[in-house]
Design brief:
Elements lengths: L2 E5 L16 E6 L6 E6 L3 H10 L5 E5 L12 H7 L3 E5 L15 H14 L8 E6 L1 H12 L4 E7 L9 H10 L4 H8 L1 H6 L13 H15 L2 H31 L3 E7 L11 H4 L6 E5 L6 H4 L1 H17 L1
Parallel strand pairs: 4-5, 4-6, 6-7, 7-8, 8-9
Antiparallel strand pairs: 1-2, 2-3, 3-5
């Protein structure tokens, strides 16, 4: 395996959510350039083999964040799923957060990082994982399942998918933004505008706990002030738009053939990718489950973590029992 596991050194100014700091690790590329993949793991590496041997039926979840986000997006979900007996891993995709990724960033690079984490977690055809992705992370989750379907017992797509996702008008607006970084860099000069950019992603940002609001306001500034995050954001955005335009039919064909189960989870108050867009994906197969999370926006794992974790764990249990 080209990657080795090491405790996270804490070298990045982007500090982990405090309650998860002890569960922070890195995959270090031993054969290539200075590439590291940051991730949280609810089971420390030296305990993973014992857990795998003694509880082979326990679900393993790999959680993938959306565009311009990090593994901390799942900060409340990780302990909730772990309390249900699951092993939970959540990574920073290449170029985002604390994952250092020299070279070209695109969806293919993100998928490779997910597959490397699956390998490091000893996921196999005999002990497959459940992959959950939010927004753009849902597309990465689909692509990982297409690449290695035997390693993925089930897919959980949260407020995002291909086909589905952004409507065509929204996609063209997104494409226009690819040619200008002025709006992104302007946030550095006006921090309050950067913080206000969080509001559309939540049904009610002001109703969140104070520690979450403080953490997210600090985190959004850390993102916009980072040149590497900026590069990863726009490179991934280009790749995502290109994939939506050129590969939607390919994804549809492969998702119809995917042998695992699929759960769609959607916040009923999502203003970024509205619930109505889920219909095109749901229509692919009769066995796709669509569950709506009341009172949640685009990030139900943050606004309604208990409800989101319960539905994910219940889905995994149904899949393991079938």
């Amino acid at each position: 395996m080209p990657f080795s596991t090491a405790p996270y050194s804490g070298s990045s100014p982007m500090k982990p959510w405090p309650a998860l700091a002890a569960n922070a690790f890195c995959l270090v590329n031993n054969s290539g350039p200075e590439e590291t993949i940051f991730y949280f793991d609810s089971a420390p590496p030296n305990a993973a083999a014992a857990i795998s041997a003694s509880r082979s039926s326990a679900p393993v979840f790999v959680l993938i964040h959306g565009l311009g986000d990090e593994a901390d997006s799942w900060r409340h979900l990780i302990p909730l799923l772990a309390a249900r007996g699951c092993r939970v891993l959540a990574l920073d995709l290449p170029g985002f957060g604390r994952s250092a990724a020299p070279g070209r960033i695109n969806l293919k690079r993100h998928v490779s990082a997910v597959l490397s984490l699956l390998e490091a977690a000893r996921v196999s055809a005999e002990n497959p994982a459940f992959i959950a992705g939010n927004s753009m992370g849902a597309v990465v989750a689909e692509a990982a399942a297409i690449r290695k379907p035997k390693l993925v017992k089930g897919l959980i797509l949260i407020d995002g998918s291909i086909p589905g996702g952004p409507s065509n008008p929204g996609l063209f607006v997104l494409a226009k933004l690819l040619f200008s970084r002025k709006w992104y860099r302007a946030y550095r000069e006006v921090p309050e505008r950067a913080r206000s950019s969080l509001y559309p992603y939540y049904a009610d940002f002001d109703a969140m706990p104070p520690e979450d609001k403080d953490f997210l306001r600090e985190r959004v500034m850390a993102r916009v002030e980072s040149s590497t995050q900026e590069q990863a954001f726009f490179a991934t955005q280009r790749s995502l738009v290109r994939t939506h335009i050129t590969a939607s039919r390919y994804f549809a064909r492969r998702m119809r053939k995917y042998p695992g189960k699929i759960l769609l989870l959607w916040g009923d108050l999502d203003r970024i990718i509205p619930l109505a867009t889920a219909g095109s994906f749901e229509a692919l197969r009769e066995d796709i489950e669509l569950e709506i999370i009341p009172g949640a926006g685009h990030l139900p794992q943050q606004e309604k973590p208990g409800e989101t974790a319960r539905r994910m764990a219940d889905f995994a249990e149904r899949c393991i029992g079938c």
